[in-house]
Automatic annotation (TrEMBL):
InterPro entries, alphabetized: B3_DNA-bd, DNA-bd_pseudobarrel_sf, REM16-like
Domain of life the protein comes from: Eukaryota
Location(s), subcellular: Nucleus
Pfam family of the protein (one): B3
Official protein name in the record: TF-B3 domain-containing protein
């Protein structure tokens, strides 16, 4: 399971880039729909963009809902092929 975790700083409110090595190993090279789930079980629809190795089309809503700021840390757990559980540390 540890290879399915990403620890990152919270930034880029419109697009969340992910490590390319993680994306290559665990996510498809094309665009597809994903669900972002927070610690409370609240879900946000997002789009993973394979050629940009990042999340868009829903990341901004997740970020704003949780009032993410520079300095916050995030742990992304790839719980399913199309679902990230995201843990926030402020």
């Amino acid at each position: 399971m540890q290879d399915q975790l990403i620890v990152m700083a919270a930034n880029f409110p419109l697009h969340k880039g992910l490590p390319s090595s993680f994306c290559k190993d665990h996510l498809p090279p094309r665009e597809h729909k994903m669900v972002l789930e927070d610690e409370e079980g609240v879900e946000f629809d997002a789009v993973y963009i394979g050629n940009r190795t990042g999340l868009s089309g829903g990341w901004r809503g997740f970020s704003m809902h949780h009032d993410l700021e520079d300095g916050d840390s995030l742990v992304f757990e790839l719980a399913e092929p199309d679902r990230f559980k995201i843990y926030i540390f402020k």
